[in-house]
Amino acid sequence: MSATDDELTGLHNRRNLFLTLRRQITYVNEKKSSLALLVADIDGLAAMNNAYGFEFGDKVLQHVALQLQQVARAHDFVARIGDDRFAIILPGIMNKGHAELAAQKLLRLLHLPFESNKARVKVGVTIGVALCPSHATHGDTLLRMAEQALVSAREAGEHLLFAPDANQNADRTEFWDLEIELAGAQQRGELAMHYQPKVDCATLKPIGAEALMRWNSRSRGLVPADLFIPVAERTGQIKALTLWAMNTALRQAGKWKHAFGKLSVAVNVPADLVVAHDLPELVQNALNLWHSDRVQLALEITERSLVVAPEVSFKVLSHIRDMGVKVSIDDFGTGYSCLAYFKNIPADELKIDKSFVTGLLEDPASAEITQLIIYMAHRFGMSVVAEGVENEPTLRALQERQCDVVQGYLVGKPMSNEAFQMWLDAAGGVRPEVPKDMFPPDLRLDI
Ligand code: C2E
Ligand code: CA
Ligand code: CA
To answer: Using CA positions, which residue lies closest to atom 32 of ligand 1?
Structure first.
């Protein structure tokens, strides 16, 4: 330990942080690179000192110091710069998103409660971040801006804020920004599963629901699935999201109250996961956790999953079906399938793509394709779901063509779990011959 160290935590002290910051900023200015300065304050340390004594407070400080060291990479510089205040210099970061990742990692590490013989507490921190050169090119200004951001975060009740940009909106729409925000979405409780009813085409009795993910971002509002799912796929976050979706759907479906016997809940699984060898194991784990005799798990996979690496996907899907899980081919007919392998498809259900269903009444080709898919599916023991059914004439056309299941705005839009429970309640007193009564208009809304 040297004179520039903090005795309690073994970290550098404020003076040493200043010296290092000046040196590093000179380097950044010369090399035209960038760095971030992150300042973190422990929430309520004084209260913890009062409640459990200073010895406990010291242990909390050491605990936070340890988590900061875990966040730090080899060249990062960690210091304690005040009673309950820490700072970390992150040299060579490429953009704001990298600094945010570091901050989120710290928040994640501190999510677990800290425990000593005195008490068990959740240690919260508030973080302010400033970047060099975009916010400031002098050490003291940069520190002041990071500390100011921290104060603003505290006032706004946020855990993390950046110093304000000269042009605040300049980079909000960039891809990495969405990617970074998505990385913390689940942890921040911004994700939810919504459910869209699937009903028997002839009797209109509920047979289950498709689970669709919703991201209600605090900063962006509701982000469409078509926008964030592809980002999750490109960045590899889709695996964690799919597992979360599957577990959430099984957990919630297990609690649905209804008199329809066994209801299916269908989770969308992207191609990359279908060709991954651990999919059956992950599905089995979820089933072990949430098993219910009244829930039938189904996986909706796209045709693309079958053609990318058929040797692998056919094997994985057969394994999954052996576990009692149904496999459904989504967006069927959109271009990849080949009639030759039709009879070998390891699936229980085909979902005719919306585009054919929408065109069913006006476009003779769509009508013929729909008819053909239904015929072929039945011929090989599969059932058929029509998705995107928006009006009654389309429903009647599908009934005439012996379609098995329908899904679409006519029956119900995707809705929150609570709204889906209400929808089931309303469908409980079904009079199947009068479909309009079955679906109260307010429950058709996307809640
Ligand atoms: P998808 O799997 O084909 O889901 C059906 C989409 O059609 C949903 O859009 C649904 O809201 C919409 N839809 C349902 N009925 C109708 C209708 O009558 N008319 C019209 N015009 N649209 C209807 P959503 O929820 O925006 O999802 C879009 C796509 O995002 C999904 O297409 C799926 O590919 C993906 N997605 C959504 N949730 C998840 C998820 O949890 N995991 C994965 N991997 N992908 C998901
Ligand atoms: Ca789907
Ligand atoms: Ca679909």
So the answer is: 226
| Top mutation candidate among 229, 239, 250 for ligand 1, by most atoms within 8 Å of CB | 229
pLDDT tens-place string over residues 362-403: 988 889 989 999 999 999 999 999 999 999 999 999 999 999
In angstroms, rounded to a whole number, what is the distance separating the alpha carbons of residues 168 and 164?
A: 6
- Between the CA of residue 292 and those of 261, 262, 263, 285, 422, what are the distances in Å? 12, 9, 10, 13, 21
User: Over the range 279-299, which residues count as b (16 or more CB within 10 Å of their CB) and which as e?
Assistant: bbebbeebbeebebeebbbbb
Q: How many residues does the chain have?
A: 447
Cβ of residue 212 lying under 6 Å from some atom of ligand 1? yes
Give the DSSP letter of residue 142: H
Tell me the backbone φ, ψ of residue 33, rounded to 5 degrees. Answer: -105, -155
pLDDT tens-place string over residues 150-167: 999 998 889 999 998 765
Considering only CA atoms, which residue is closest to atom 3 of ligand 1?
331
- Specify the ligand 1 atom closest to the Cα of 351: 3
